């Protein structure tokens, strides 16, 4: 092996290490944009009649992650993004101070699709309005409760493929 071939090999290793060094920040940017996409999907799935609820769906960066048991792991490396409902977001309803006063109830108990998950209120399933259902149909989604977890599930493959594509680009 000549010195030129050795130098070329070392240069290639250095280049790969530089590219790998950039990978965490590139992935972090992509994670943030993907979280924003999940938030938009969740807003599309949230009922319109609780418009402030849609506005309260936000993305935040957190250094903590959840373990398999659902508990927070505060020492997790890197950063994570979570899509959440800001319960302190003000409500435009005159009888309600902030979204947190009704967000949990709507999220937990409003049905979607064929009344899935809906509770009975005044003898009828608690479901989104016809206007909300029509808006959701225009966007190809079912409007109603559990919109955060349903949005995350709907975006799971897209998120995985997007991140895998970036990693493959940087390691190949």
Low-confidence stretches: none
Question: Largest sheet, described in full?
Answer: 2 strands, antiparallel
Radius of gyration, taken over Cα atoms and rounded to an integer in Å: 22 Å
Query: Structural class given helices, strands, pairing?
Result: mainly alpha
Q: Judging from the principal axes of the Cα atoms, what is the shape?
A: elongated
What is the chain-wise order of helices and strands? HHEEEEHEEHH
Mean pLDDT comes to 85
Alpha carbon gap, first and last residue? 24 Å
Determine the strand fraction and express it as a percent band.
Answer: 5-15%
Roughly how much helix do the residues carry, as a percent range?
Answer: 40-55%
The largest beta-sheet arranges its strands as: 1-4
Secondary structure tally, helices: 5
What count of domains describes the coordinates?
1
Number of E-state strands? 6
How are the SSEs placed, and which strands pair?
Blueprint: H1 3-45, H2 51-55, E1 57-62, E2 65-66, E3 72-73, E4 80-85, H3 103-109, E5 120-121, E6 124-125, H4 130-139, H5 147-171
Antiparallel strand pairs: 1-4, 2-3, 5-6
Helix pairs in contact: 1-5
Salient structural properties:
mainly alpha, 5 helices, elongated, single chain, 12% strand
């Amino acid at each position: 092996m000549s010195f030129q071939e050795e130098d070329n090999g070392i240069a290639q290793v250095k280049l790969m290490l530089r590219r790998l060094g950039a990978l965490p920040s590139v992935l972090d940017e992509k994670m943030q944009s993907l979280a924003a996409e999940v938030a938009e999907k969740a807003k599309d799935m949230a009922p319109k009649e609780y418009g402030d609820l849609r506005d309260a769906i936000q993305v935040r960066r957190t250094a903590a992650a959840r373990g398999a048991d659902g508990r927070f792991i505060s020492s997790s490396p890197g950063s994570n993004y979570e899509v959440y409902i800001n319960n302190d977001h003000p409500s435009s309803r005159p009888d309600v101070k902030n979204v947190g006063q009704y967000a949990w109830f709507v999220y937990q108990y409003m049905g979607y699709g064929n009344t899935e998950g809906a509770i009975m209120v005044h003898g009828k399933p608690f479901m989104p309005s016809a206007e909300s259902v029509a808006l959701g149909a225009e966007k190809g989604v079912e409007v109603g409760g559990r919109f955060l977890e349903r949005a995350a599930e709907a975006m799971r493959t897209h998120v995985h493929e997007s991140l895998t594509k970036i990693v493959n680009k940087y390691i190949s």
